[in-house]
Write a structure and sequence with these properties.
alpha/beta, Rossmann fold, Dihydrodipicolinate Reductase, domain 2, 3 domains, twelve-stranded mixed β-sheet, six-stranded parallel β-sheet, 14 helices, 18 strands, elongated, binds L-homoserine
Length: 437
């Protein structure tokens, strides 16, 4: 039986999942592949801790270069994480003619262009299914399953930590800080959850998704992002009254020669399929021009789901390798630059609906001052709620708008927040359209 030799860089959680699958599903993998996947070497700084998987200790090394320089290794799996060292090893592996599998979203989202060029130069494959949404095969779907389509729009929940926090805040009425500490205790949030809650993790994943959807590498730095740390139970409550829930959404749309790409908390209509994506689950809703809407749902993190994505990439590469084929599908599924030139739309040109929560004194004429400024800036109000009546202090005045331009919204809020009847900075969330509106 043919053999495909693999070297693993990084024996952490996902690496352990990969090894577990190769051991547990060995027969199935050989039946599917008609070849044997041999894990020839594993490099990690810690080669003594027990990971709970049975491996021959002689495959372990602390020297990653033993893998990179081993002429018998056909595929290098990079699960080190971070950019600097991972980039160095991945490039060296490709220069030595080895295919690469990586789960490293930062690496692909920040250095995709260079990596894909290097893979082309050395005629090797690079696969990165595990870099986006763990066990959900969204990369494969965009590269192959949906490749007949022009992708019109993607709306996605790509960060499990944020989705878990927002779900608990919604269902239990708890504050962000309260839920964050519960999430840390239960292992749903890292000790330092910054990249998850500030939108960076979702933006990395969205950059990879839109690179595949539109056929050219997009840098994640160019994607507008806001996190969930400013979400409070009051706004979640108002969202519910208007028939929405709050989710951290990653959105990409193609329109008028531009791509809109943004990550921020958004009001999602309760009857939208993404409103039911709860806890730490991820989902990607893709609209193709011919396939129509498709939904990909599942676990976006963890040893087993992410390990599954890594091993499916290994199988894909191994299939090509044993047939003597490389680069059957190019990394972004486009063999040349797409004829359609699309540039990223600046955030201030984005048009969407909005939710505002003003903190205003409860006096006659206050609403007309606020709505006057909105009207002068082309913003049309769809509904308003004012709760309670206070002669002292402020009351929340909550509003939904029809579609408006971000630039007009920013200009209006700057003026409104300077009014003497407005006591605090206005809270803003973008709103996903209800169907039929
Ligand atoms: N930290 C990510 C999340 C999973 O919370 O979804 C890894 O990408």
């Amino acid at each position: 039986m043919p053999r495909v030799n693999v070297g693993l860089l990084g024996f952490g959680t996902v690496g352990t999942g990969m090894v577990e699958i190769l051991i547990n599903n060995r027969q199935l993998i050989e039946d599917r592949l008609g070849a044997e996947i041999v894990l020839k070497k594993i490099a990690d700084l810690d080669i003594v801790s027990d990971r709970g998987v049975k491996i021959d200790p002689t495959v372990l090394t602390t020297d990653a270069m033993e893998i990179v320089n081993d002429p018998e290794i056909d595929v290098v799996v990079e699960l080190i994480g971070g950019c600097d060292q991972a980039m160095e090893y991945v490039v060296m592996a490709m220069e030595r003619g080895k295919h690469v599998v990586t789960a490293n979203k930062a690496l692909i989202a920040e250095h995709g262009k260079q990596l894909f060029e290097t893979a082309e130069q050395y005629n090797v494959d690079i696969a990165f299914e595990a870099s986006v949404a763990g066990g959900i095969p969204i990369i494969g779907a965009l590269r192959e399953g949906l490749s007949a389509n022009q992708i019109k729009a993607v709306s996605a929940i790509l960060n499990g930590t944020s989705n878990y926090i927002l779900t608990r805040m919604t269902e239990e009425g708890l504050s962000f800080d309260e839920v964050l500490s519960i999430a840390k205790r239960l292992g749903y949030a890292e000790a330092d959850p910054t990249l998850d809650i500030d939108g960076s993790d979702a933006a990395h994943k969205l950059a990879i998704i839109i690179s595949l959807a539109f056929g050219r590498p997009f840098n994640y730095e160019d994607i507008y992002r806001e996190g969930i740390d400013n979400v409070c139970p009051e706004d979640i409550g108002f969202a519910g009254e208007f028939g929405y829930c709050l989710k951290l959404l990653a959105i990409a749309r193609e329109a008028d020669g531009h791509i809109e790409a943004r990550v921020h908390p958004a009001f999602v209509p309760l009857d939208h399929i993404l409103a039911n994506v709860k806890e730490a689950y991820n989902a990607i809703y893709v609209e193709g021009d011919f396939a129509g809407p498709t939904l990909f749902y599942g676990l976006g993190a963890g040893r087993r789901p992410t390990g599954s994505a890594v091993v499916s990439d290994l199988l894909d590469i191994a299939r090509n390798h044993i047939k003597g084929i490389t680069r059957r599908v190019s990394p972004l599924s486009f063999s040349r630059s797409p004829a359609k030139e699309l540039s990223l739309k600046p955030m201030n040109q984005v048009i969407t609906e909005y939710y505002f929560r003003f903190s205003a004194v409860d006096r006659p004429g206050v609403l007309s001052k606020i709505s006057g400024i909105l009207g002068q800036n082309n913003i049309s109000i769809a509904s308003v709620i004012q709760k309670g009546r206070r002669t002292h202090g402020s009351v929340p005045v909550v509003m939904l708008t029809h579609e408006a331009k971000e630039n007009d919204v920013r200009k209006s809020l700057e003026l409104i927040d300077r009014l003497d009847v407005v006591t605090e900075k206005t809270v803003l969330f973008r709103v996903e359209k209800k169907t039929g509106t």
